[in-house]
Design a protein that fits this description.
The complex is a heterodimer of chains A (about 180) and B (about 120). With about 180 residues, chain A is mostly helical. Chain A is built from 9 helices and no strands. Chain A has 2 domains: about 1-100, Rna Polymerase Sigma Factor, Chain: A (Orthogonal Bundle); about 105-178, Arc Repressor Mutant, subunit A (Orthogonal Bundle). Chain B has helices at about 5-15, 25-35, 40-65, 70-80, 80-105, 110-115. Chain B is elongated. Classes of the chains: A mainly alpha (about 180), B mainly alpha (about 120).
Chain lengths: ~180, ~120
């Protein structure tokens, strides 16, 4: 019987069960690290540092998670805050480890050329549009959930997704079927 | 002129362009960075419990008139038939065993999961 996120959270809170917290990390590490890699423009080392900081904050603040939203939404919000604070400190995000990024892609699902163009196009989007696209289109959050993660109005999320999509489609027009 | 990629295809390509990221020790690094739970050492807890138990015994001894009740109790028990003493000992064993099982279930998450299973 697989435990739900809520069961694991309850164990961490009740018994300070670190094994339960480890299971939560294992479940969500891929999506959180993926999100942060997109936000940091594929700076893998920085993204993993931020992901680690995200989970440490989650552990310290788990008691304040009220369960009104999904755990993943709350998690993304903390990850986004970590990224924003770091970006504020750095002012400018640098370092695209393109070779490592390419090596991690699965060559069988998407045309490598299309993937390259897609990720490049995504990295060229302004941060607010890129974040909205990554949360809604890649990670499957609803506009409402993304608005809660980013702490911006719902209409702004919709606009950012729409604009981001249009820009990506324009950039990838060459890949459209005839 | 070529058309545009539709929304559905674009979303699918975006999802597929980001594969599952293997853990590769990430969880272990996070766990190593967790703050240790602020807890007094086990030996200190054991000593406090032992001290309290000893104190309780001493108080009970003094209140019972230097063990007079215990002495009389033992004399009375010596008059009991042997089968009654065996039943009494068995009952005490059951009570202690039941408390031990309850305590073990409360402390062991894996056992707790088994108790939640529905057949």
């Amino acid at each position: 019987m697989e435990l739900t996120d809520a069961d694991l959270i309850a164990r961490v809170l009740a018994d300070d069960d670190q094994h339960a917290f480890g299971e939560l990390v294992r479940r969500h590490q891929s999506s959180v690290r993926g999100l942060l890699r997109q936000l940091t423009r594929t700076d893998i080392a920085l993204a993993d540092d931020l992901a680690q900081e995200t989970f440490l904050r989650v552990y310290k603040n788990l008691g304040s998670f009220r369960g009104e939203a999904q755990f993943s939404t709350w998690l993304y919000r903390i990850a986004y805050n970590c990224f924003r604070e770091d970006a504020r400190k750095r002012k400018e995000l640098v370092g695209v480890d393109e070779e490592q990024w390419q090596a991690e892609q699965d060559p069988h699902t998407v045309d490598p050329g299309l993937r390259h163009d897609l990720m490049h196009a995504l990295s060229l989007l302004p941060l607010h549009e890129r974040t909205a696209i990554v949360l809604c289109c890649q990670n499957g959050l609803s506009h409402d959930e993304a608005a809660r993660v980013l702490e911006i109005p719902l209409g702004t999320v919709k606009t950012n997704v729409l604009r981001g999509r249009e820009k990506l489609k324009r950039t990838l027009a060459a890949w459209a079927p005839n | 002129m070529k058309g545009m990629i539709d929304d559905e295809t674009l979303d699918r390509q975006l999802r597929e362009a980001v594969p599952y990221i293997d853990d590769d020790g990430f969880t272990a690094r996070v766990m190593a960075g967790l703050p240790a739970a602020p807890r007094e050492p086990r030996w200190l807890r054991a000593m406090v419990l032992f001290g309290l138990a000893l104190l309780g015994c001493g108080v009970a001894y003094l209140l019972s008139g230097g063990g007079r009740i215990v002495r009389e109790g033992v004399i009375q028990m010596a008059d009991f038939p042997i089968w009654l003493l065996l039943v009494f000992a068995f009952g005490c064993g059951l009570v202690v065993g039941a408390f031990a099982v309850i305590f073990a279930i409360r402390r062991t998450p894996e056992v707790r999961d088994l108790t939640r299973l529905e057949f």
